[in-house]
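Think of the structure tokens as a kind of shorthand, similar to the way a musician reads notation: each symbol stands for something richer, in this case the local conformation of the backbone. In the example below we present two proteins back to back. Begin with the first one, reading the sequence and then the tokens, and try to describe in your own words what changes along the chain.
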Amino acid sequence: MKVHEIMNKKVITCRPTETVLEILNKLKMFKINGMPVINKNKELVGIICRADLLRFLPNIQELDKINKEDLIKKFKTPIEEVMVKEVVITNPVDKLEEAVELMVEKNVNVLPVVEGKKVVGILSRHDVIKEIIRQ
């Protein structure tokens, strides 16, 4: 089985200039945990996930130690300053087994599916589990 057979072709993406607050809203609105970051040519330049944002933002215990202006500044930070730039990817014609091995080896929950430099889909652990159940 090939990646393109089970990947999600409707990929929610963002731009590097979108802010942390905008990304948090997108994650909540679309009920997703992360998304590829693409440039104006729709080429993959990074990936952002909830865990990256949680590491970037202060936790509850630190809120009393950070002033309001610094907190507002963090939420206005462009996502290109927070995103992971070295993205683990797969190709639509790659074997599904190889993509799954890559997810496990690199400890990632989603793989952007890239053709050339453009994102054509996304493969998540959820997609893989759904396929296993279907079979």
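Once you have a description of the first chain, move to the second and do the same.
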Amino acid sequence: MPYKPLTILMADDDWEDMELMEDALADVEPTAVLHKVESGTAAINYLKAQPDAELPCLIILDYNMPELKGSDVLALIRKDHRYKNIPKVILSTSNTKAYIDECMHNGATEYFVKPHSFEDLSKIAKRMLDFCDNTAN
């Protein structure tokens, strides 16, 4: 079977944060492919458009986004069995306990607070990719 790179979906309304995460993921797994969208609505539209064989191995969501925040996306995709086995993580600037509890209740695998250093972001990227590896076929 040919090698298939890890495919990850990230939704964040801050393009710079997505670029940093892309660099951190590439630091850990250079062949990983990050699909970037700027809203929760765009994340849902992306997922709906993918055939089952092309779904990402990981979904990364920002908590605070226009239209649909990360926890709203979690609640919506939780209803569709296609996404049941895909790990979903929140990467947010907020460490508010109520937000964390809300996201975990809505199906998040993990909630990460955006770090202040690239080194720490790479450590988070490694942990996220471990979720991907655990669900790979």
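Compare your description with these statements about the second chain. The radius of gyration is 14 Å.
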